[in-house]
Design brief:
7 helices, alpha+beta
Length: about 180
């Protein structure tokens, strides 16, 4: 279905609906990445995290960009790379003939910093980023933390909608408490 076409029930393709959702998020960074981690939509707050403009591929940006590893994503090895590498491995396992994923994993394995982490996390299970609290040095807001919320848009279940709330300061904020259906 083309982005401007509708199916028999009048629904539009994911891009049109979710782009509106992502661009409408204010006060938090938000983006959607496809199953290859290509950024398909993002808001202005997310663009502000990336001094050179939005990355074409969020996984490549997180794992292979030296400026990002050294200046933006703090505690990169433990918090960012050890979470991203198992997710990449699972994607390759789930789609073993996908050349884009295979190329991305190959580039990560060859990288002198990300490669050893990719190999060391071979037995690790990928953690869903929902609720993750990770430190950043935001280019305009300074030292702080992001608290991630993540979901999969139903039209493209292999894609991911991620929203990150920025919390300033050096002290790690607590993870948000789980939602409870009994707390009414």
């Amino acid at each position: 279905m083309q982005p401007d076409e509708r199916d028999l029930e009048g629904r539009t393709a994911m891009g049109a609906v979710w782009r509106t959702v992502v661009e409408g998020v204010t006060g938090s960074m938000a983006y959607i990445a496809d199953r290859h981690w290509n950024v398909v939509a993002c808001n202005d707050e997310f663009r502000a995290l990336i001094p050179d403009g939005e990355p074409a591929n969020i996984m490549r940006w997180m794992l292979l960009d030296d400026r990002v590893r050294n200046k933006i994503l703090l505690n990169w090895t433990e918090d960012w790379a050890r979470g991203a590498c198992p997710a990449l491995r699972r994607a390759v396992t789930n789609h073993p003939t996908d050349p884009t994923l295979i190329d991305l994993a190959s580039d990560v394995r060859r990288d002198p910093l990300a490669g050893p982490i990719y190999l060391a996390t071979a037995a690790s299970h990928p953690l869903h980023p929902d609720g993750a609290v990770r430190q950043v040095n935001h280019p305009t807001k300074g030292l702080g933390w992001v608290v991630a919320s993540a979901a999969n848009p139903l039209p493209e279940i292999d894609s991911m909608f991620v929203m990150m709330q920025y919390r300033p300061g050096e002290l790690r904020p607590h993870q948000p408490p789980p939602l409870s259906t009994n707390a009414r």
